[in-house]
């Protein structure tokens, strides 16, 4: 009998400790989640606030990502339009085009003859009466020049324009992608604003989780005092509150993902209808796998940090002076 009691009271072995540690944490995770579901209204309100806070910068990210995708399709337009002298014939323009195709910074040259330019002008509509009064075609020959990707920077584009204007057949040039570069700059500004907004709202999430955990600590003050009296360690007391912060962050991140995905789904039909008016298609893209992982990891980390701060303040305040 004494031998059996000795076996029962022996300390766990080294190989048994990881399993005991895992079981303790697993029990704490499940118990913390059950405690949150026992108060569905306060938990739901906290999770909703966290989700809305995180969904705002996530929505801005989705917006800029879709606009960049849309702008990527606009890169197919001519980067530089070279208008030749009016006296330049189509055959002479073809010779100039062949010459430009040999330049290392140019990827493609498209010749637009006078007749093609006039046909495109007629297709615009609204100028039929004016065109009937014109006896000769007043439009010059145009060369649509597409530079290589490595030579599409603003500095190299300006150098290319200067080089094109030095041609004896050149009249003037127009950079068709200048507006696109400005649009890209606006998108960069919006993306920076989204990062700043995300940082500010992240601080708000810290405050929300920290205040929620602080209220939970106050509600369980008697339970915590009893655990301290029986010799519970700080890590044991801190554990359920930390997992509560993790759950708040995870549920808030999932809520943010759900809100953004729902917004993309609701906007897909109006965007498709607008794109159809331009004889195009543009499927909206939501949060990808990487972006979703970043949101969930960030929300969990914010919840963990917020709960850590709240619990540590209580433990420091409970220590004897």
TrEMBL record:
It is found in: Cell inner membrane. It is a multi-pass membrane protein. Residues 79-161 form the FtsX extracellular domain. GO terms for cellular component: cell division site; plasma membrane. Residues 199-314 form the ABC3 transporter permease C-terminal domain. Its main location: membrane. Keywords: Cell cycle, Cell division, Cell inner membrane, Cell membrane, Membrane, Transmembrane, Transmembrane helix. GO terms for biological process: cell division. The chain crosses the membrane at residues 43-63, 185-209, 246-267, 287-311. Pfam families: FtsX (PF02687), FtsX_ECD (PF18075). The keyword Repeat does not apply. Forms a membrane-associated complex with FtsE. Belongs to the ABC-4 integral membrane protein family. FtsX subfamily. Part of the ABC transporter FtsEX involved in cellular division. This is Cell division protein FtsX. It comes from Thiobaca trueperi.
């Amino acid at each position: 009998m004494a031998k059996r009691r000795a076996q029962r009271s022996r300390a766990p072995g080294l190989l048994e400790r990881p399993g005991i540690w895992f079981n303790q944490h697993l029990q704490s995770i499940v118990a913390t989640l059950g405690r949150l579901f026992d108060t569905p209204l306060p938990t739901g309100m906290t999770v909703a606030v966290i989700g809305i806070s995180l969904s705002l910068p996530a929505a801005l990210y989705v917006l800029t990502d879709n606009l960049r995708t849309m702008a990527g399709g606009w890169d197919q337009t001519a980067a530089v339009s070279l208008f030749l002298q009016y006296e330049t014939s189509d055959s002479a323009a073809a010779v100039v085009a062949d010459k430009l195709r040999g330049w290392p910074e140019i990827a493609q040259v498209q010749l637009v003859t006078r007749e093609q330019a006039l046909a495109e002008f007629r297709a615009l509509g609204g100028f039929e009466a004016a065109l009937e009064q014109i006896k000769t075609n007043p439009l010059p020959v145009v060369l649509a020049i597409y530079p290589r990707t490595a030579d599409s920077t603003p500095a190299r584009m300006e150098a290319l324009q200067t080089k094109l204007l030095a041609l004896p057949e050149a009249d003037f040039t127009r950079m068709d992608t200048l507006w696109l570069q400005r649009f890209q700059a606006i998108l960069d500004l919006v993306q920076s604003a989204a990062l700043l907004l995300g940082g500010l709202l992240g601080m708000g999430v810290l405050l929300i989780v920290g205040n929620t955990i602080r209220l939970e600590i106050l509600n369980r003050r008697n339970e915590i005092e009893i655990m301290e009296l029986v010799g519970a360690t700080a890590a044991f007391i801190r554990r359920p509150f930390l997992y509560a912060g993790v759950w708040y962050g995870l549920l808030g991140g999932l809520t943010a993902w759900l809100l953004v995905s729902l917004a993309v789904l609701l906007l897909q039909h109006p965007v498709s209808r607008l794109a159809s008016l331009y004889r195009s298609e543009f499927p909206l893209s939501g949060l990808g796998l990487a972006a979703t992982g970043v949101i969930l990891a960030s929300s969990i980390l914010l919840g963990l940090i917020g709960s850590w701060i709240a619990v540590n303040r209580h433990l420091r305040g409970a220590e004897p002076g």
